[in-house]
Every structure is written in structure tokens, then in C-alpha cells.
Amino acid sequence: MRRALLSPPACRDLRALRAAVAGRAVLVTGASSGVGEATALRLGAAGATVLLLARREARLREVAAQIEGTGGRAVVIPADLSDPASVDGAARVVLATAPVLTGVVSNAGRSVRRRALDGAPRADLERLLAVNVTGPARLLLALRPALGQSVGQSLGAGSVVVNVSSVSARHVGAPRWGAYQGSKAAFDLWMQAAVAEWPGVRGASVYLPLVRTPMIAPTRTYRRLPALSAAEAAEVVTLPFVRRVVRVAPWWLPGAEVAGIVCPGVLARGLAWAERVEARLERRA
Ligand SMILES: NC(=O)c1ccc[n+]([C@@H]2O[C@H](COP(=O)([O-])OP(=O)(O)OC[C@H]3O[C@@H](n4cnc5c(N)ncnc54)[C@H](OP(=O)(O)O)[C@@H]3O)[C@@H](O)[C@H]2O)c1
After folding, report:
1. What are the tens digits of pLDDT across the range 111-137?
2. What gap in Å lies between CA 242 and CA 21, rounded to an integer?
3. Residue bearing the CA closest to ligand 1, atom 25
4. Which residue among 31, 128, 222, 227 has its CA within the 20 to 30 Å range from the CA of 156?
5. Which residue in 237, 153, 138 sits closest to 194, CA to CA?
């Protein structure tokens, strides 16, 4: 029931994934935790050489050790996506290690749930735009020489860029989520437009529902909501390696998108009401 409600289509067949990625190089950003870590482990189990990028080198080394412990190959690339020099340095290491990339899983991301009217909204917005938009875009462009060159895989030649996005990038703006929703939607559209210009590169947007990872831990209301595990999310994220999909989403997402088109006013009023209730409860607490 939980899986039927939450789960987008997925690649549960490790043999199919093996046919697509074994012996090939795939970069996973945000591989030190959550969805990225689980995706890296799955790609490693399928025989890919997994390039692991994130800031925490010690965590990346643990993930690499797990991959290598099961006979796989992993390369650790510590980098901070919010720092352009660090992104350029990481891209140089990727190109030197793997001149041909079969895939990039653009997964690293940050979220913040905070009222835009409180604190330092510019800081939230700018921080999230750097990690969720400009850093990953800079990295992809720097990897141009390695993308589109891969040959002989089960789905045909070329490379796939998998953008790990969120269902929230597709529905109406929710109070306190503006910086996150805006940044996720911005990168998704940028990626779709960029790959359309790019010979030999196809893009896939994966709109994940809630996933039980460190990212959602600070949001108390999420603790009781149904969520995918990181391992289940990794099965969803790896689907574009075995099927030519451009969009992967839970079955109910189109309904939410249509509601945003058909009755945006009702939704906006409902969300504004929920925000007023939450703010009142916070003032009382
Ligand atoms: N969890 C959910 O419910 C959910 C739902 C929909 C979509 N998503 C998306 O799924 C992706 C993964 O999220 P998650 O839930 O797995 O979160 P997570 O466990 O917090 O992992 C986030 C990853 O991003 C990396 N990262 C953060 N800032 C970075 C930076 N400046 N430079 C390089 N790497 C950075 C982190 O590594 P370091 O800290 O080591 O740098 C970590 O590996 C995100 O794009 C998120 O938007 C999550």
C-alpha cells in the first residue's frame, strides 16, 4: 500500500542495470548520504565504476569501501558544489579518471524550510541556488568532453544525465519552501533545455516523493508521513539507465500538476491558511 501510494516506476532488476552500466563510469553527486549513497551502492553492485562526489571525504571513503567490498570500483572526489573553483577542480579529476562517462546522477542538494519573511531570505535563496542550481550546472558543462561519447551499452550510445528532483518542483509554491522549490524547478528546466542542445546526451528528471534521509530529519511533520527508503529511491533513480524515460514520477503527480492549473487560487488560499495556523501555533508554543 505504502509503495503503491508513493513509488514511481523503478528498476528493481539488478541484472538489467548490470547490462547497462557494468564496466562503465558513472558520476554520482551527493554520494556521501541518503539517496546519492544508496544510488552509488546500487550502481557499484551492478558493476559500474562509480565516481563519488560530495564534501565529506571520510563518508565518501566509507561508501567507496562498501562498493569495493562487493567487488566494485569507486573513486572518491571531495568537492563543494557551492564553490566554483572546487567544482572546476572536481571536473578535472573526473575527466582525468573517466574520459568517457555513461551517466551523471546529479543528486547533491540542500533543502531549507524557513519563512522567506524571517531571518535572511537572501542567504537561504543564494545558498540553495549555489548548491542546487549553479554548482551542478557548472559541473555538467565542465564535463562536456566526457558526455555523449559512451558506446555499446544496452540502450544505445550516448550518456544520460539523471536529475534527482522533487515532486515539489512541479506543484504550486508552498509557504516556507520557496528557496528549495524554486531552486529544484530552476535546475530541472535548465537541465532539460541544456541536454536538448547536446548531441549524444539525454536527460531524465526524477521527481521523488518523500524519502527517509538526513535531509528530511529536521522537519517534524515529515516524521509521521509515509516515505520511501533511500534504497527504494535508488531503484527509482537508476531507471533511466535501463529505460529511455525523460520523466519519472509517482502516478499521482500529474493530478497535483493539473490541480495547480485548474484551481491555483483555491490551493494558494489553502496553503496561506495552513501557514497562518502554523504561525499561530508557533507563537503560542
Ligand atoms: N529526502 C527527500 O524526501 C527528497 C525528496 C525529493 C527530492 N530529494 C532530493 O534528493 C537529493 C538527495 O537528497 P537526500 O534526501 O539524499 O539528502 P541528504 O541525505 O542530505 O544528502 C544530500 C547530499 O548532497 C551533498 N551535498 C550537500 N551540499 C553539498 C555541496 N555544497 N557540495 C557537494 N555536495 C553537497 C551531501 O554531501 P556532503 O554533506 O558530504 O557535501 C549529501 O551527500 C537532493 O537533490 C534532494 O533535493 C530528496
Report:
1. 999 988 887 767 899 999 999 999 999
2. 9
3. 30
4. 31
5. 138
